[in-house]
Amino acid sequence: MHHMTGPLWGNIAIIGIAGAITIGCFVAMFWMIFRPGEKDPRHCKNDILRPDR
Fold first, then answer.
1. Could you tell me the CA-to-CA distances from 24 to 8, 11, 31, 48 in Å, in that order?
2. How far is Cα of residue 32 from the mean position of the Cα atoms in its chain?
3. pLDDT, tens digit, for every residue of 32-53?
4. Alpha-carbon distance 26 to 22, whole Å?
5. Nearest partner of 47 among 10, 16, 36, judged by Cα
6. DSSP label at 49?
7. DSSP 52
8. What is the pLDDT of residue 24?
């Protein structure tokens, strides 16, 4: 019935690697939102964090 599935440890490795990449992307996203590295207050990245929004 399940002749197309791979070995258990291979599936766990693929899931773990994909999960680590996904978490890394979320960490990078939040890092770039809250610490954009731009010092110019008129930069477009700072528009999303304006106090009046």
1. 24, 20, 10, 22
2. 10
3. 888 877 778 787 777 777 666 6
4. 6
5. 36
6. G
7. T
8. 98
Residue 13 clears pLDDT 70, i.e. is over it:
yes
CB neighbours of 48 closer than 8 A, spacing ≥ 6? 33
Instruction: List all residues 6 or more positions away from 7 whose beta carbon is below 8 Å from its beta carbon.
Output: none
Residue-wise DSSP of 4-37: T---HHHHHHHHHHHHHHHHHHHHHHHHHHH---
Secondary structure (3-state) at 44: helix
The tokens for 7 are 């070995």
C-alpha angle 19/25/26, rounded to 5°?
90
Tally of CA atoms within 13 A in the half-sphere of 4 that contains its CB: 0
